[in-house]
Design a protein that fits this description.
The protein is α/β, with parallel strands linked by helices. The chain is built from ten helices and 17 strands. 49% of the residues are buried. Pfam families: ADH_N, ADH_zinc_N.
C-alpha cells in the first residue's frame, strides 16, 4: 500500500464513512487465541463506536516488545483470549460516537495506549502524564463506557481489546481520550512516520527529554538498543549529549544506532558493564536508561550512573514479580531512579508539537522503519523482532 500524503482526502484512502457509519464493519484482523500461538488472520466484526468513542481505519501498525510480551503471555494475570493486540499505529477516523468533538470523520490520527481525558486530577497536573481513567492498563480488556468489546468473531464471540488501542485490525474502536489528531499544515511527516509517535519513538525520546531532561554536554548510557533504546539515544543526541554509550548483546545494533557514540557488548569482557562505563566516563554517566525489562541489566544501569547526581530511568517492561535489585542504602550515594511511561508525554496535549519537531528534523525518524509487510505476514514480523533483525516493521492492510 502506498503511503498517502497528509493532504489526501478520503477518496485516496478508499474510505467512505457514509456507507459504514453506524453499521457493523466486517474486516481483517490478526487475532491471538492463546499464549505464543500463531496469529490467525481472519475476518472479524467491528461494531459502531458508542458514546465518547472513535472508530478508526488503521493504515499502518507496527510491533514492539510490549506486543511480544503480551502475545507470549509472559504475565499470566494479563492473559485474555481471543484478543487483538497492537498499540502503535496511524489511521483515519471513520466515524465517531455521541459526544465526540475533538476529532471528526476523515481526520488523520494515531491511537495512544496512555490516554488523556483532560479532566481528571492527574491530567490537570503538569508533573505527570498519567490519566485516572484512560492511563495504560494491561489488565483492561473491554471498553470503558459499558464494559463490553467492540470486536467479535463472525460467529458472534467477543474478542478482547488490548492497551486501549488494538491496532492489529483494519478497523478499531478506541475511547476518544486515546486519539490524537494531526493536521498536515503543522508538520511534514508521512502517515508512516506518524505511526512511530504512538509508542516507541515518543517513549524513548520523551524519556530523554521529559523524564531525564538530558542536558548539553552530558554523558548517557542506554541499555538495550531496540527501537525505544535507540529513540533514547536519538533524543540524547538532539539535546547535545557529549557521549552516548549503547549496551546490547547484539553487535549488529551498533550499525543502526542513531546517536550512539560508543558501544559495549556485555559478552565481550568478564568485567561488569557498569565498571567499564565508569572507566569511560570518569566515574559514571549523568543519565542511564534501562530498556530491556531485565533486573540484572537494571542493576548495571543503576551502578553506571555517577554517584552524587546520576539518574537511572526505567523503560523496560518487567513482567516478573522480582523486586528492584537495589538496597535502600545505595540510594544514599546520591544516585536516583525513576520510571517513565510514554516518555512523559501527555498524548493529546504534547504529540502534535512533537510531530512538528520531528518534521523539522530535530528527531530523525526514517531509520526506525526497517521493514514493511502485509498483515498476513505478522508472524514473520514478530520473528524479525525476536531475532533482532528489525527495529520497527510496519504492517499494512
Amino acid at each position: 500500500m502506498a503511503c498517502p500524503a497528509m493532504a489526501n482526502g478520503n477518496d485516496s484512502l478508499n474510505l467512505k464513512p457514509s456507507e459504514t457509519k453506524g453499521k457493523t464493519i466486517t474486516c481483517k484482523a490478526a487475532v491471538a487465541y492463546g499464549p505464543g500461538e500463531p496469529f490467525v488472520v481472519e475476518n472479524i466484526l467491528v461494531h459502531p463506536p458508542q458514546k465518547m468513542e472513535v472508530r478508526i481505519k488503521i493504515l499502518y501498525t507496527s510491533i514492539c516488545h510490549t506486543d511480544l510480551s503480551a502475545w507470549r503471555g509472559v504475565s499470566e494475570a494479563q492473559r485474555a483470549y481471543p484478543r487483538i493486540l497492537g498499540h502503535e499505529a496511524s489511521g483515519i477516523v471513520e466515524s465517531v460516537g455521541e459526544g465526540v468533538s475533538e476529532v471528526k470523520e476523515g481526520d488523520i490520527v494515531v491511537p495512544i495506549f496512555n490516554g488523556e481525558c483532560g479532566e481528571c486530577t492527574l491530567c490537570k497536573c503538569e508533573k505527570t502524564n498519567k490519566c485516572e481513567i484512560y492511563g495504560v492498563n494491561p489488565m483492561k480488556k473491554v471498553m470503558e463506557g459499558d464494559g463490553t468489546s467492540r470486536f467479535s468473531t463472525v460467529h458472534g464471540k467477543p474478542i478482547f481489546h488490548f492497551l486501549n488501542t488494538s491496532t492489529f485490525s483494519e478497523y478499531t474502536v478506541v475511547d476518544s481520550a486515546c486519539v490524537v489528531k494531526f493536521v498536515s499544515t503543522d508538520h511534514s511527516l508521512s502517515i508512516k512516520n506518524l505511526t512511530l509517535l504512538s509508542c516507541g519513538v515518543s517513549t524513548g525520546v520523551g524519556a530523554a527529554w521529559n523524564t531525564a531532561n538530558v542536558h548539553s554536554g552530558s554523558t548517557v548510557a542506554v541499555f538495550g538498543l531496540g527501537a525505544v533504546g535507540l529513540a533514547v539515544a536519538e533524543g540524547a543526541r538532539a539535546r547535545g549529549a557529549s557521549k552516548i554509550i549503547g549496551v546490547d548483546i547484539n553487535p549488529d545494533k551498533f550499525i543502526k544506532a542513531m546517536g550512539v557514540t560508543n558501544f559495549i557488548n556485555p559478552k565481550d569482557e568478564e568485567k561488569p558493564v557498569y565498571e567499564r562505563i565508569r572507566e569511560m566516563t570518569d566515574g559514571g554517566v549523568h543519565y542511564s536508561f534501562e530498556c530491556t525489562g531485565n533486573v540484572d541489566v537494571l542493576r548495571d544501569a543503576f551502578l553506571s550512573a555517577h554517584e552524587g547526581w546520576g539518574l537511572t530511568v526505567v523503560l523496560g517492561i518487567h513482567a516478573s514479580p522480582t523486586l528492584l535489585p537495589i538496597h535502600p542504602m545505595e540510594l544514599f550515594d546520591g544516585r536516583n531512579i525513576v520510571g517513565s511511561v510514554f516518555g512523559g508525554f501527555k498524548g493529546r496535549s504534547h504529540l502534535p508539537h512533537f510531530a512538528k519537531q520531528c518534521g523539522q528534523g530535530v528527531v530523525k525518524l526514517d531509520n526506525f522503519i526497517t521493514h514493511e509487510l502485509p498483515l498476513e505476514e505478522i508472524d514473520k514480523a514478530f520473528d524479525l523482532l525476536i531475532t533482532g533483525k528489525s527495529l520497527r516493521c510496519l504492517l499494512h492492510f
